[in-house]
Specification:
Distance between the termini: 58 Å
Low-confidence stretches: none
Largest sheet: none
Strand content: under 5%
Mean pLDDT: 91
Order of helices and strands: HHHHHHHHHH
Number of strands: 0
Radius of gyration: 17 Å
Length: about 210
């Protein structure tokens, strides 16, 4: 690891920055936008919540193309973390670093006017690669809350809120914990409108049956 300030600068420029750019670009391949805009010719961001995520896509279009959205957002997270691991030595830090920038790409994709999704599906795929204990807490709480309440957003809030704390428990490293808090904070920020609706009782519940007009 770098020891001096200049060593850290060189490490950032030569290693961290390229990984950040590559994994960000991986994240920009938003499944909901690509499928709706280029296959269905009807941008999902013009419907429902305006979010380019799996839930809004399913509520708007439904159908087997939902699986394409899932595969796209899962695979890009896997690819991003694999690339990050290969370039940065396969450390836990490399996984969190790659996950952060992949989610930034998903949430703020440069090729789609920086209007993307909320990061749950891609982030959920990333946690499985990071640590099964992290995945158990994040996904376990998500599934329990989503199934019992039918509020996907409530499960998502749990995922974003619990992620930094289970990270803190599993990896008590300052840098990794800071990255985890940034990731969790981004997810909660992306769900701020959902949180307001949950508090006011106006949030929509999820149904396996697509709404019809």
């Amino acid at each position: 690891m770098p020891v001096s300030f200049m060593d850290w600068v060189r490490y950032f420029v030569v290693m961290l920055l390229p990984v950040a750019v590559i994994t960000y670009l991986c994240g920009c391949f938003n499944g909901a936008v690509i499928v709706s805009k280029y296959i269905l010719r009807d941008d999902v961001r013009n419907h429902g919540s305006g979010n380019a995520g799996l839930t809004n896509f399913y509520r708007t279009f439904g159908g087997p193309l939902t699986l394409v959205v899932i595969l796209t957002d899962v695979l890009k997270a896997i690819i991003a973390l694999v690339i990050g691991g290969m370039m940065l030595g396969g450390t836990t830090f490399s996984q969190y670093w790659a996950a952060l920038f992949c989610l930034l790409g998903h949430m703020f994709p440069c090729m789609f006017h920086f209007k993307g999704g909320k990061g749950i599906l891609s982030g959920g795929a990333a946690v499985f690669l990071i640590d099964w204990r992290v995945a158990l807490v994040v996904w376990g709480g998500f599934l329990i809350l989503a199934v019992l309440t039918k509020y996907v957003s409530l499960g998502s809030v749990w995922a974003g809120g619990s992620f930094p704390f289970i990270t803190w428990y599993c990896y008590p490293n300052v840098v990794i914990v800071v990255l985890a808090f940034i990731i969790g904070g981004l997810i909660l920020w992306q769900h701020r409108a959902n949180i307001k609706r949950l508090l006011t009782g106006t949030e929509s519940k999820f149904s396996l049956h697509k709404k019809t007009n």
